């Protein structure tokens, strides 16, 4: 089967995949794989394969936003992928979840338009328990500020004339906001595959805590590197 959005033949895909928004991050993650190679690229979707812990896996970029990312997730699943871990970045809603720390998303609030068009209102976007547990187990092996809990998936990065819903989700205890996890979890649930996510916090998203957005610092890079190690080991152990 030819996966035309990814430009990949399904039989070249492994069962387990790391996904991330940024194609450059996919390139970086792929450098940790033995015998890594770029299988294909189309639009924002870069597909690398290689071995980690002697297991054949893929690293695929999905771009920014739930709808575009969903095309990638659906194609991976059509290609036989059974487990997906997203390694992303997110903005913090909680003071103690500082820039440079990590969040394992056990569930995500689906405010994105995409999720509302594939599952009924109220359908929960939850991570697979076994994947979250594997991610949590890996965090025990490192000394790094790591939190786990609910994230929020939003379509908007820069506010329009409608105010951001940040404050109510902050009060509700949501840890961080990003743009694709709810789509991943909803698709994984209805297609019956496993999914989880770990995100590096690249700043405060809440307007009361907001700083200048700059995800390109050494501190954020270190957090992403740590998230990558945790995710690769969780996927292959
Ligand atoms: O760093 P990635 O994985 O792209 O994730 C986050 O960063 C992008 C916004 O800058 C959105 O895709 C958001 O979900
Ligand atoms: O969606 C995102 C991703 C990173 N940081 C944010 O504030 N929002």
From TrEMBL:
Entry-linked Pfam families: PNP_UDP_1 (PF01048)
Highest taxon of the lineage: Bacteria
Gene Ontology molecular functions: uridine phosphorylase activity
GO biological process, one term: uridine catabolic process
Any single GO CC term annotated in Swiss-Prot or TrEMBL for this entry: cytosol
InterPro entries in the cross-refs: Nucleoside_phosphorylase_d, Nucleoside_phosphorylase_sf
EC primary class: transferase
Domain Nucleoside phosphorylase: 17-230
UniProt-listed Enzyme Commission number(s): 2.4.2.3
Reaction equations catalysed: uridine + phosphate = alpha-D-ribose 1-phosphate + uracil
Protein's name according to its UniProt entry: Uridine phosphorylase
């Amino acid at each position: 089967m030819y996966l035309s959005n990814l430009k990949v033949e399904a039989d070249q895909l492994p069962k387990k995949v790391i996904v991330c928004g940024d194609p450059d991050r996919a390139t970086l993650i792929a450098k940790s794989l033995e015998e890594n190679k770029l299988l294909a690229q189309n639009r924002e979707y870069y597909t690398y394969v290689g071995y980690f812990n002697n297991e054949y896996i893929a690293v695929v970029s999905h771009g920014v936003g739930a709808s575009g990312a969903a095309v990638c997730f659906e194609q991976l699943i059509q290609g036989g992928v059974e487990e997906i871990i997203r390694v992303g970045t997110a903005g913090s809603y909680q003071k103690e979840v500082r820039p440079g720390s990590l969040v394992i998303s056990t569930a995500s609030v689906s405010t994105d338009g995409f999720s509302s068009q594939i599952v009924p209102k109220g359908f929960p976007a939850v991570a697979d328990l076994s994947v979250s547990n594997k991610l949590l187990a890996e965090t025990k092996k490192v000394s790094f500020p790591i939190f786990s809990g609910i994230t929020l998936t939003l379509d908007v990065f820069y506010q329009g004339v409608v105010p951001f819903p940040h404050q109510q989700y902050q009060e509700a205890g949501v840890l961080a906001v990003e743009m694709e996890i709810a789509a991943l979890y909803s698709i994984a649930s209805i297609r019956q595959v496993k999914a989880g996510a770990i995100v590096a916090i690249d700043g405060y998203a809440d307007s009361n805590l907001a700083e200048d957005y700059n995800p390109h610092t050494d501190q954020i890079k270190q957090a992403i590197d740590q998230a990558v190690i945790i995710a690769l080991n969780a996927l292959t152990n």
